[in-house]
Amino acid sequence: MMRDTIPAEELLSKTHAVGQYYGFTPLSALTAAARGGARKSATYPEFLSNLGNDSAAETLTSFLKQCQRADLAPTPRQPLFIWHTNIAPGRPAPKKATIQLHALGTDQAIADAVIIRALLALVRDLFHEEPTVRINSMGDKETRARYARELGNFFKKRAGVLPEECLACAKQDALLAAELAIARECAEDLPAPTEHLSDASRKRFEDLLEYLEMTETPYELARDLISRGNVWNDACFEIAVGGRRVAWGSHYGDFTRHFFPSAINATGAVLQVASGGKTVKKQSVPRIRFSFVHIGDEAKRLSIRLAEDFRKARIAITQNIGIESLTEQLSLAERRESPYLLIMGRKEALEGSAILRNRKTQEESILPLVGLIDRLKAVA
Q1: Dihedral of CA 167/168/169/170: which sign?
Q2: Which fold has domain 290-379?
Q3: Quick one: pLDDT at residue 379?
Q4: What does the pLDDT average to over 328-347?
Q5: How far apart are CA 7 and CA 157, in angstroms?
Q6: Domain boundaries defined on the chain
Q7: 8-139+198-274 — its CATH code?
């Protein structure tokens, strides 16, 4: 039977662990580093305070406001992979806990893939059941405009058979009418948004599916998965357990223009679950022994798959999968002061090996991926 309530401390500890292995930094750590400077004030469009029944969009808005106040500045060279929660050590546990994963500043489809993989790992740990990933793409503004016109024609042609409430809604908002038709189970022949994708959106969606397939991440294409255009764009996905959605995610680059000097590429996901318990204790942070750095698609794909092996074996390792720059990865490893580097480039990925470097002595050894876990345990 699916768990209905999960203790807040368990949620926090498992999110900490998953975040470490997939390269997500707690927002609290980034905002703490920003304290002491002038607090940034801002005004927001009125519609941000009224997002209808989209709880994920409301949660996203709160997160982006905190990023703006902390003056975070993600860039393609230095994207930010962040996790955030409303569970706070030293405070009573919330009745409804929220866990968020975000990738800010990168337009690479690997960001979506990493978020999906990390969420899958977390959901498996929390619910002790195998989740289902459903994925679709609503495309960019160009795509949505074409798709909205196609939906308008769809509702006009089927005016004699569709419920009156769907037809009335379609006159104001075709996407909302499509959601209503799906909920009423009268949308078997509803046009699919993926049939109207722009070249850019199609390429990005194909890249994401390729990452999922190459990393053996299970998913289902879901043509009935619809997202709203004022917040979400391009790929969207949901994770369900026992037929019930527990997490929702999507690209939301257009929406970020309200919080940053200009719009940035961004993908995020929100997991919400009933919680409870006593005052949450502060989590102990284990010392990271290994920093895994990699360059090239082959190495990146392998690193996504290896993250679960490392996590299950409880190897004290972390990595920054979504960061392309090797220099930036090495810089982050330097700040963590981990004693060892595990390095993989295209050559090592194709040969099935990795280079282990002692940061103090600069001594290196080549380790085959077969038996890698045992070798790292011996070193640690």
Answers
A1: positive
A2: Rossmann fold (3.40.50)
A3: 87
A4: 93
A5: 51
A6: 8-139+198-274, 141-186, 290-379
A7: 3.30.930.10
